[in-house]
Amino acid sequence: MKLFKNATSPFARLAHAMLIEAGADLEIELVNQWESPERLVERNPAQRIPTLELDDGTILTEALLIADHAARIAPDGSHLKATSPQEAQITGIAFGVFDAAVYTLNGRMIVSGSFTDTAFDDQPMGLRRRRSMTGGIARLDALADRLSTDRPGLAEIATVTAVDYLRLRFPGAGWLTIPDRLSEVSRAFADRPSLRETAPPA
Length: 202
Prior knowledge:
It is built from eight helices and four strands; from the N terminus they run βαβαββαααααα. The protein is α+β, with helices and mostly antiparallel strands. The longest helix is centred in the middle third of the chain and has 28 residues, at 85-112.
């Protein structure tokens, strides 16, 4: 299988980490989706990452669909197969957090052409996305006792991805506080291969 991703995308990290946990034999191809590389476009007209090409040529797109595939191909008895509505609840909240973060970065690019120009952030839609992030983090903190610290399933991977991505993209932001319990979950899996190998560069 070949996974198209970039080094910082939280969507790609979620899919990649799940595939590693499933024991998938993967080839990784790093792409910059902003440049619309032909090898990505011909596989995914939406030009989005992650995009997964299976051995038979089937193309899977969208992070949660690829994560679901990872759970399906995981060996019998894998913790990835132990899904529940509670796990889906946490995953959805965490996904909403980093989706709002990516939306903010994309908004910056649309408004000013720069990821570092924060003019978008104080506009009504930027403020709405900020509330999505802070509210989501608060909700994850309230559910943190349901998270494992030794068996990362989809909920744990999504939560760590959300926490790490906010820290990467909004360092020193006065509006952002990561609760201790969520920091502990992130630290607990820092050396887990699936999360260590997919961690965004500092």
